[in-house]
Amino acid sequence: MKKLLTAILLVAATFGIAKADDHERPTTVDQLPQKAQEFLNTHFKDLQVAFAIEEQKFMGKEYEVIYTDRTEVKFDTNGEWEEVECKYTTVPAAIVPQGIRDFVAQKSMPGIRKIERNTYVWEVELQNGIELTFDKNFQLIGYDD
Amino acid sequence: MRLISRIMLNTTVVLAVGLSVWSVVFYYVMKDRLVRETDAALMQVAEALMQRYLAGEESLIDGEGSVYTIRFIPVPDEYARSHRSLSFSNQNEEARGRNGRQAVRTVQMIFRQPDNQAVALQVSTPMNAVHNLRMALLWGVVILYGALLVLVLSINYIVIQYSMRPLYVLLDWMKHFDLKHNSAPLVNETGVAEFRQLNNAANQQVERVKRLYEQQRQFIDNAAHEMQTPLAVCLNQMERMQQKEDMPEEMQADLYRLQRPLRRLVRLHKDMLQLTRIENGVYAERTDVDVRALVAGTCEDLSEVFAHKGITYIIKSESPLHVQMNDTLAHQLVGNLLRNAWLHTPEGGRITVEWNAEEAVFANSGEKPLDGERIFERFYQGERKENSNGLGLAICRSVCQQCGFSLTYSFKEGMHRFIWHFGGEKNADFSENRVQF
After folding, report:
1. pTM of the model as a whole
2. In the CATH scheme, what is the code of domain A22-83?
3. Domain B193-278 belongs in CATH node 1.10.3110.10
4. By CA distance, what is B112's nearest residue in A?
């Protein structure tokens, strides 16, 4: 009995791992969470969507939208943006927090072409390729050229 | 079925079923996973290609990498709307520069150019590497399954065998235990509480049985010895009284009637004492006994009583027969068997004795079979006979046991057959002194 139970558990675990990640599905902007749609409408209204994809992660989903000018926007499962990357222009100023904007302006650095955030840090990549990492209080904690 | 076999069988069944399910599921999941990994790689390539296409790298169009085959196909809006923008498919494709076709996995991404033209990007990769990997996986799973099963079962076997040793020691000891010859207490060191309990129980029981046996033996010995003298005195007195000349006729008859049971009592007592002696191993020394001469002599001695009852006796075998046993006991055995035959043969019956190297058969005519087991018990008498005290056959069997022979009874063709096997312990289990668990 115990062995059977163990076997079932093992099987379930194997299934779980296999099912859980890296499952990509095509999607459209209409199917994104409301928050994500609003974000895109606010900041990238003029661009044309080339491709949108939904990725099943271990927990929740991740969405990625690619515009025809190669701008990429990523959202987490709740529709909060995680990453915005523009290949040719700077990211919309409205999404960059004041602290980072001030920091970049003070040092008269070039514009930000990529911004990424998670629970702990903010990361921006400037147009000259330098990457800056900030903590939650927008203090610089690292950079990489 | 032995305990360990039972456990192993159960384990094997459960394990085999469980492992089979597990490995089948594992294989299919991994196979699926392989395809998915391929898809993920394709997807990555396709995404990068799309980026480069959007960036305007025209050189990419319909290129062929070393591993991937790439096609950019402008498609009508209609097509773009009716098809999923991301799809995977298995195809057979003409192998480049090779004969035959090969399986490829293709991803198709439909995306929009800046001028809103839909473009289908197809990226294909050959599946033979994946196929090889899948076969390797299959073999791996099969081999692993076998190895795991064998390993788990052998570990199981060794562990059980090792843990159960005290049990087998106990069982072995029980098997060889004999109250008279091999009554050493059980030595079985173990830290396992259950086995200790079993050992203790076995030792306690054996102690008890030994004590009881000893007490019983002593009682019989004492009773027999103490009775000898008074009985002899009684008999003597009676004979002296009979010889008195002034004894009235009536009294003489009374005395005679009293004398018969008394003589019977003396004989009974003698036989019981003899039985006890035999069982206590008094007659241990062995010599070479000539059974042929012994049977012939005994028959000769008994020929008069045989004739008195009109019984004919035939000694069928003439081959010499020698056995190793105690001389006194041999006399007792043959004598008792023949006397028993005489006692229970009806008037005008016949008695035959024959033997070969394995057994000697003492047969006498009779009417119906007797209870083959109970006739050897002390004081068992199917039909009460005047001159029988019910101990003759018990002594016979006791003698046989003492000398390592066995004695059985059968009824064939109107003859009671008592078979003396020289080979030994066919009926060892009926030995009274063996403790049966």
Report:
1. 0.54
2. 3.40.1420.30
3. no
4. A50
